[in-house]
Amino acid sequence: xxxxxxxxxxxxxxxxxxxxxxxxxxxxxxxxxxxxxxxxxxxxxxxxxxxxxxxxxxxxxxxxxxxxxxxxxxxxxxxxxxxxxxxxxxxxxxxxxxxxxxxxxxxxxxxxxxxxxxxxxxxxxxxxxxxxxxxxxxxxxxxxxxxxxxxxxxxxxxxxxxxxxxxxxxxxxxxxxxxxxxxxxxxxxxxxxxxxxxxxxxxxxxxxxxxxxxxxxxxxxxxxxxxxxxxxxxxxxxxxxxxxxxxxxxxxxxxxxxxxxxxxxx
Length: 266
Description:
Elements lengths: L2 H4 L3 E3 L5 E5 L10 H7 L4 E5 L20 H14 L5 E6 L1 H12 L4 E7 L19 H13 L1 H13 L5 H12 L3 H12 L14 E7 L6 H10 L3 E9 L3 H4 L1 H12 L2
């Protein structure tokens, strides 16, 4: 099976620039629908489902390969190669933001520009350097233990917490349904891969101009971590979005569209 089919690739629009969009942990490509439809007015847009997520072929997921975000970065590079994409614009949310950064570090010609939304190089605080990731090691271990104990119960509370839209409970419920599509062992693998990762040392090799976007009061990525990432990549800048939660592109797509449009303007 071709990778495009296995990843349920969707193509939209036409134009001189191709924009590759990757969803975050627990979601699927539908999270980008509103933003992708807008960008497709001027660009070719490619969205896809990560291994283990959405409509992707279950055979794509490997408990060994995808025990690290490096596996997802390699998937991205292979998919771009099959689609004959070079010098594309990359837009990645959360874990996929870091997957894209790693792919760019390994292959400097892969992306011309990057947008990293709600991405973090490391979620664990590092008092020795003053780095603020947002979680202690103990908190991460407790999170992973809760996933291992009862993923269905844990995911319902987690979904509402990270969506952070109490006036729109439907958004948290929809994300909870998306999370519930994971098999518990797959969920534990990918959450461990994301929350125990530390790719701070690799960020200096990310060469493309990079727009780091972060929502205010993001419960997964504090402002300090977003600022660190924007300062660590070779040519980064930070824009804070005035939308609470980890999913501003879902809660308020216009808040994400505006800075992306400005970043991609000729």
